[in-house]
């Protein structure tokens, strides 16, 4: 058996384990986004949205739908990897993986694959729910899929880096609660950047989630507050940078080797 075949089997095994893990506990992993996003559509779309009126030529419900889908992808891609990898550290079975001949890149790819699949499944659930509330028509399907996959990869890598540095369960909730959630809410999910003051517009340009939400909204509705090429460039820069950081930490054994 060649090295490539061995690596493929190792990746497939890890990814399969990760996917089975969150599907086995689907009530905790896949049901919450369905309930939460239904409430978002009812409260922000039906109740408040009718008072706000159209935004950028679309009803408020249609306008926020892509942002809510992206919010589900980001949250679940991140939380899947951070919870799974930290559990492996906490229960000390990560050592068995580290002493195996599996390359670190394959280990990283296996965990990220699990996070990406869960993020995309959560996004698909929200997309299906949105059909009952909106008349969403995807303008650029290929671009929509690319942005969803790349964004899920970025935040799955973020979850992996968070899990490496985490020393207890409190540490894996600090980043989602105090960094990820504020950035998501201020990333243009519920409003256009053109509605906020100039200072806030400038501050939004330093928020990476702003570029991801706008790129996804361009793919679905065909509108964006920014140049779509810049949005793709920012997503790719984060993807490459975070992959490099995660591999460096894994190779050095930071947080996982004495």
UniProtKB/TrEMBL annotation:
Highest taxon above the source species: Bacteria
GO MF entries: ABC-type transporter activity
Cited NCBIfam families: PRK15066.1
Keyword Transport assigned: yes
Cell location: Cell inner membrane; Membrane
Protein's membrane topology: Multi-pass membrane protein
Main location as per UniProt: membrane
Family to which the UniProt record says this protein belongs: Belongs to the ABC-2 integral membrane protein family.
Species for this entry: Candidatus Nitrosoglobus terrae
Gene Ontology cellular component annotations, sorted alphabetically: ATP-binding cassette (ABC) transporter complex
Entry keyword set: Cell membrane, Membrane, Transmembrane, Transmembrane helix, Transport
Protein name, UniProt field: Transport permease protein
InterPro entries per the UniProt record, alphabetical: ABC-2_transport_permease, ABC2_TM, ABC2_TM_bact-type, ABC_2_transport
Residue intervals of the ABC transmembrane type-2 domain: 24-253
Ranges annotated as spanning the membrane: 25-48, 60-86, 106-133, 145-166, 172-193, 230-250
The keyword Cytoplasm belongs to this UniProt entry's keyword annotation: no
